[in-house]
């Protein structure tokens, strides 16, 4: 039986602004999101029985209905009345609960893959709408590329990709819950909102310098206060020469942007002293 493969890349938020808290409990956001080449990989194969089976080499994620890839498979199967089974193997490379949307990207890859495996012929827009039922970041993970995200994150506009550069990612050994961070966030505590317009201008001009100058994430105010080690990592990346540094999503992963390869080793080595999980990636442009 034929196998289908899908890559599930990690996302980073170049800008994350929160406008207000909505009646439904979600926050109205404005985000500039892009993908990096640190990725999980999904292998999907038809099962002779009507069942979803998930496996992974990673011992630290759920493999039942708590897994977002499992939920994605169940949703698309039920919605389109598919009476066939699938075996999904998830090669997990993206750190978990890190602010890199690993779970969301796995769910997106499962939707894309099963659309092909089961010949459903759904458009990207239809997959995005389906994905939004499972999580705010999933529509972006389906579309990929670089996007301005609004609403709770599901309203997308594709924009110019960032100029190519190195992305050094450091994840301290703490797990951060997105719901907790949004729960503690107060719009009134933000002294200055980052500018989405400045970032979009930087990207359309392909200006690495202006992109670094326009980075901003209002959720840092919550996570950096609560976890001083995240602030330490930021300071270390700046000191060791990264050109732009920001926490991704609700954290705790911090990414540093570097334009010249010669600087990568310096930033990487600077971090290794007090952070075990450090990754070197490239922008997916
Ligand atoms: C912060 C961001 C930035 O990209 O990413 P992560 O740090 O999770 O990677 C996202 O907004 C996270 O999106 P995602 O992780 O899909 O969130 P969801 O599952 O939809 O929601 C988890 C919880 O976060 C809160 N939430 C999420 C999105 C939003 N716009 N407002 C919210 O208040 C809600 O309390 C919700 O119950
Ligand atoms: N496929 C998956 N990969 C990673 N975590 C998953 C997955 N499915 C469900 N989860 C659960 O979702 C939570 C958030 O995971 P993740 O998507 O990695 O975080 P974030 O949105 O912060 O990047 C974790 O607590 C994890 O147990």
UniProtKB/TrEMBL annotation:
EC numbers: 2.7.1.148
Domain GHMP kinase N-terminal: 67-145
Pathway: Isoprenoid biosynthesis; isopentenyl diphosphate biosynthesis via DXP pathway; isopentenyl diphosphate from 1-deoxy-D-xylulose 5-phosphate: step 3/6
Pfam families registered for this protein in UniProt: GHMP_kinases_C (PF08544), GHMP_kinases_N (PF00288)
Key words, A-Z: ATP-binding, Isoprene biosynthesis, Kinase, Nucleotide-binding, Transferase
Residues involved in ATP binding: 95-105
GO biological process: isopentenyl diphosphate biosynthetic process, methylerythritol 4-phosphate pathway; terpenoid biosynthetic process
GO molecular function: 4-(cytidine 5'-diphospho)-2-C-methyl-D-erythritol kinase activity; ATP binding
SUPFAM superfamilies: GHMP Kinase, C-terminal domain, Ribosomal protein S5 domain 2-like
Domain GHMP kinase C-terminal span(s) in chain numbering: 205-275
EC top class named in words: transferase
HAMAP family per UniProt: IspE
Family statement drawn from the similarity comment of this UniProt entry: Belongs to the GHMP kinase family. IspE subfamily.
Function according to Swiss-Prot or TrEMBL: Catalyzes the phosphorylation of the position 2 hydroxy group of 4-diphosphocytidyl-2C-methyl-D-erythritol.
Protein name as annotated: 4-diphosphocytidyl-2-C-methyl-D-erythritol kinase
The species this protein was found in: Cohnella terricola
Gene label: ispE
């Amino acid at each position: 039986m034929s196998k289908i493969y899908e890559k599930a890349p990690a996302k980073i938020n170049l800008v994350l602004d929160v406008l207000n808290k909505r009646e439904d409990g979600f926050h109205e956001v404005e985000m500039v999101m892009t993908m990096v080449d640190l990725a999980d990989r999904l292998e999907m194969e038809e099962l002779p029985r009507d069942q979803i089976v998930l496996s992974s080499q990673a011992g630290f994620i759920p493999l039942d209905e708590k897994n977002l890839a499992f939920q994605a498979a169940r949703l698309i199967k039920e919605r389109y009345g598919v009476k066939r089974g699938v075996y999904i193997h998830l090669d997990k490379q993206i750190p978990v609960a890190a602010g890199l949307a690993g779970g969301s990207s796995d769910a997106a890859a499962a939707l894309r893959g099963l659309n092909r495996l089961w010949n459903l012929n759904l458009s990207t827009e239809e997959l995005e709408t389906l994905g939004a039922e499972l999580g705010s970041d999933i529509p972006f993970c389906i579309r990929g590329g670089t996007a301005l995200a609004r609403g709770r994150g599901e309203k997308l506009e594709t924009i110019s990709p960032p100029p190519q550069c190195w992305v050094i990612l450091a994840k301290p050994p703490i797990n951060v819950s997105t719901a907790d961070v949004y729960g503690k966030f107060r719009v009134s505590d933000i002294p200055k909102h980052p500018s989405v317009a400045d970032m979009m201008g930087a990207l359309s001009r392909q200006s690495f310098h202006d992109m670094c100058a326009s980075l901003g994430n209002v959720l840092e105010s919550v996570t950096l206060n609560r976890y001083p080690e995240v602030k330490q990592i930021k300071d270390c990346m700046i000191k060791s020469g990264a050109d732009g540094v920001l926490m991704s999503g609700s954290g705790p992963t911090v990414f540093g942007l570097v334009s010249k390869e010669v600087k990568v080793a310096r930033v990487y080595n600077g971090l290794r002293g007090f952070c075990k999980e450090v990754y070197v990636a490239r922008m997916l442009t």
